[in-house]
Amino acid sequence: MIHIITSNTKTYLNLNTLANTYLYLLIRFHIRSLLKIAR
After folding, report:
1. Does the pLDDT at position 2 exceed 80?
2. How far is the C-alpha of 6 from the C-alpha of 1, rounded, in Å?
3. Distance between alpha carbon 28 and the CA centroid of its chain, in Å?
4. Number of C-beta neighbours around residue 25 at 10 A
5. Is the pLDDT of residue 4 over 90?
6. Is 7 helix (H, G, I), strand (E, B) or coil?
7. Helix and strand tally (H, E) in the chain?
8. How many CA atoms lie within 13 A of 16 on its CB side?
9. Among residues 1, 8, 25, 35, which one has the fewest Cβ atoms lying within 10 Å of its Cβ?
10. Is the pLDDT of residue 28 over 90?
């Protein structure tokens, strides 16, 4: 039981990291395109 919980937590953290990385890249891309439009 405890083992299942820990593995689920690890998977959740991995997914969280992936989502954060994706959001970070998305925001960076948007900022870059906005700066291009501003110029």
Report:
1. no
2. 9
3. 12
4. 10
5. no
6. helix
7. 1, 0
8. 6
9. 1
10. yes
15, two tokens? 């997914």
pTM beyond 0.85? no
Residue type, 35: L
8 or 2, greater pLDDT: 8
Whether the pLDDT of residue 39 is over 80: the answer is no
**Tokens at 5, concatenated:** 């919980």
Indicate the burial class of 33 (C-beta count within 10 angstroms; 0-12, 13-18, 19 or more): exposed
Is residue 31 classed exposed, middle or buried when 0-12, 13-18 and 19+ CB atoms within 10 A define those classes?
Answer: exposed
Q: What is the largest CA-CA distance in the chain?
A: 57
